[in-house]
Amino acid sequence: MAAPLNIRDPRARELARELAGRRKTSITAVVIAALEHELAREREVVPLAPRLAKIAEGARAQTGSDARPVSEAERDAMWTR
Q1: 31-45 pLDDT, tens per residue?
Q2: Phi, psi of 5 (to 5 degrees)
Q3: Between vectors from CA 42 to CA 41 and to CA 44, what angle results, nearest 5°?
């Protein structure tokens, strides 16, 4: 048998009570739903490095075969209009 979950933090307890009241359900049910929701969000998170790699890949695909590096002067000109 698992040990009961005790919510000792007054703010957490009040938030759980409020949500349970609004949903007309138990505190246990809203805590479970909130934890499932947050875990689902965490599981969907794609780390920064793969996200940036995908963006870079898309940018490279749009440059074409005659692509050349942008010079420092060209970069500066983009910011000093």
Answers
A1: 999 999 999 999 999
A2: -90, 120
A3: 65
- The region of weakest confidence among 3-7, 40-44, 66-70, 73-77 is 3-7
8's tokens: 């000792």
Helices 27-44 and 10-23, packing angle to 10 deg? 100
Specify whether the CB–CB gap between 20 and 30 falls below 8 A: yes
DSSP string for 10-79: HHHHHHHHHHHHHHTS-HHHHHHHHHHHHHHHHHHPPPHHHHHHHHHHHHHHHH-TT--PPPHHHHHHHH
Give pTM, 2 decimals.
Answer: 0.58
Instruction: Report d(CA 70, CA 13) in Å as an integer.
Output: 56
